[in-house]
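Sample 3 of the quickstart, ligand magnesium ion:
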Amino acid sequence: MIELRTPAEIEQMRPAGRFVAEALATLRDETRVGTNLLSLDRRAHDMIRAAGAESCYIDYHPSFGASPFGKVLCTSVNDAVLHGLPHDYTLRDGDLVSLDFAASIDGWVADSAVSFVVGTPRDEDLRLIETTERALDAAIAAATVGHKIGDLSAAIAEVAHGEGYSINTDFGGHGVGRVMHGDPHVPNDGKAGRGYPLRPGLVIAIEPWFLATTDELITDRDGWTLRSADGSRGAHSEHTVALTDDGPVVLTDRSFLGVD
Ligand code: MG
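Result:
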């Protein structure tokens, strides 16, 4: 069921959005060659506690998960792109890192993800990351009342295909509210003009993710981490966006922090 939020409820969602934005900006800033993924998770846990927020991940146990997630941050490195379960790994020069973070404040969830390279980047990794960011921007620009979900999907796919990346539609964006994953599904590929009409009060996570040379995923032995089937690298960009009569409001926007 798709739930629409009142303008007052969207205002109530802003603290969660701001917290997730600040936390991701901090985590990104503190992540470098030599950082251990478990220490990033602990840092995120500390920030959640300090903010009086609640993790959306730690007890998360969907049908596809082997057991409750048990961590508060997804850390996907190189050929891992989604649901990366933090483990004892120390980042090396040139690693491509995707951090996905969702938390709630006062019962309202925000969900956001960012990809970046630690140390010396490879050009192809920067292109992959930049393409997910540009696809996210294109989808947000299309997230106006009167459009349909398919317009967002088509905007994402156009950017991806323009760079030669193929798209996996098994995992995509979703409604956000009192829980992390609600209706509607927001696929990363679709037909313009099709699907659920975008109405004021709809709050969705939009999350393009692409793999360099495949659209097939395999699940790691940890039961959570999703990796490319061919070992190529992946990137992921995500924001929680509220649709209003005045246009899209990016609740997890980090630009006010002076970062992208
Ligand atoms: Mg997310």
